[in-house]
Amino acid sequence: MCTIAILHRVVADSPLVIAANRDELYARPTRGPAVIGDGVVGGIDELSGGTWLAVHASGRFAAVTNQRALAPPAVGLRSRGLIVRALIAAPDPVAYVAAIDPTHHASMNLVWGDARGAMVAYLRQDAAVPGRRQRGARAAAGVHVLCNDRLGAPGFPRGARLAAAIHAALAVDPTWRALVDGDGVGTGPLARALGDHARVPHADVPPSHLPAALARELTATCIHSEFYGTRSATLLALGDDRVLGYRHADGPPCVMPFQDGDPMIRRSTMTTREATMALTTMTDRVRKLVVAGLIVGADGRVLITQRRADQSLPLQWEFPGGKVEAGEAPVAALARELAEEIGVIAHVGRIWDVLFHSYPAFDLVMLVYVCQLAPGEVPRPVEVADLVWVTPAELPGAWDILPADRPLVERLIVEGSPR
Asked: Quick one: pLDDT band at residue 71, thresholds 50, 70, 90?
């Protein structure tokens, strides 16, 4: 994400408002917002499993922009998007950011915060550059726009134009509803400002190493070049311990309508009972409620099982579990499935995730529980083709994981195995 506006203590009914455009190569595969963790919603970068902006139902957010650099990033650097996923879950965000080694990543700005305010950290991959490793600068009350350098850095006309549009809208009506929704979801002046195509005259384009046409296009808030541009937009209002409003356009905000993301925020904290009820209220498609066990060994490895050749999706790998029968409690169903599939007695603990996947013939809701094997229990393939213990880092690529289980893999890579 390359443009983030921070409105702190200036919107009448929301202590913190975020308005952001994500700019990226058109060829890079991404998915729109989804539940990516317990209480966490964000878009997904399908190459790395990371996200550019994540919001937690408790009223906090984390995001990243790249920093401008003359040379392309070195091969082999770690994903910046995975940092955002870890940052939104970190109990002490400041300590987490302070521990990041910026030489392991392409240069970036991290932004995070809640109703109390927003923090910005500038992390340069070339960490030896003087003054370019500042950590945790707090944005003062007011309107701030962060592009691909420090707050207030010169050379970003789109940032100055967006800030001016925000100030103008605040002078008319400083409420979230007026700024964002206007006459309908995502039709207000703040939403329209994110779709602004205005560019500076050729003579006023800031100095750049890029081709002149591209450098001028990058002065627009909503960017449209041949191979790179604005891919999505987000509007977010945060209050004390909760999200007051969440709007997302899964495409350029100049043409793609904003959608109301509040229901997704609520779903991110669904209890087992609420997830079960969703089966009868979401759509008229056939739905299946299944349970899966996240069984973690003493060494942090997790257990996955392989489907039999005579089953649908044959020989693919998944987390052990199965269907909840009519009248059966999900916890009891998982204990039964683990006994039947891998021959163990297990304690079914807390729910760790709620996943949704749409297969061609049905919709699936999966409740994922942290499980612990009873003393002396050793899993064996009873009603599965095979089983194996793997580290989260080994899961991508090496194992053909079921589509419904892949978001769980992404979360394990970011957060590690639960304890």
From this structure: low
Mapping DSSP to helix (H, G, I), strand (E, B) and coil, where does residue 89 land? Answer: helix
**207 CB contacts (<8 Å, ≥6 apart)?**
155
Cβ burial 185-209 (10 Å sphere, 16+ → b, else e): bbebbbbbbbbbeebbeeeebeeee
State the pLDDT at residue 14.
95
Starting at the edge strand found earlier in the chain, the sheet holding 302-306 runs 317-318, 302-306, 386-390
Distance CA(44)–CA(410), nearest Å, equals 10
**Two tokens, residue 74:** 């070195």
Q: Please, are residues 55 and 42 in contact by the beta-carbon 8 Å criterion? A: yes
Q: What are 14's two structure tokens?
A: 């929301």
Tell me how far apart the alpha carbons of residues 377 and 345 are, in angstroms, rounded to a whole number: 7
Spatial separation of the C-alpha atoms in residues 311 and 136, rounded to whole Å: 52
**Edge-to-edge strand ranges of the sheet holding 287-295:** 321-323, 287-295, 363-373, 346-358
Tell me the backbone φ, ψ of residue 98, rounded to 5 degrees: -65, -25
- In angstroms, the CA 236 to CA 140 distance is 18
Find the mean pLDDT for residues 60-64: 97
207 backbone dihedrals φ, ψ, rounded to 5°:
-55, 140
* Angle 385-391-396 from CA coordinates, rounded to 5°: 75
Across the range 254-274, mean pLDDT stands at 83
Scan for tokens 């957010």, then name that residue: 61
The Cα–Cα gap between 53 and 330 comes to 32
Contact 234, 15 (CB under 8 A): no
Q: Which amino acid is at 183?
A: D
Q: Is the pTM here over 0.85, yes or no?
A: no
H/E element, 64: strand 60-66
**Do the bridges between strand 363-373 and strand 287-295 make them parallel or antiparallel, or are there none, so unpaired?**
parallel
* Sign of the Cα pseudo-torsion (207, 210, 216, 217, in order): negative
DSSP 258: P
Q: How far is CA 6 from CA 67, 90, 114, 115, 145, in A?
A: 18, 21, 11, 11, 6
Would you say 88 and 61 are in contact if contact means Cβ atoms under 8 Å apart? yes
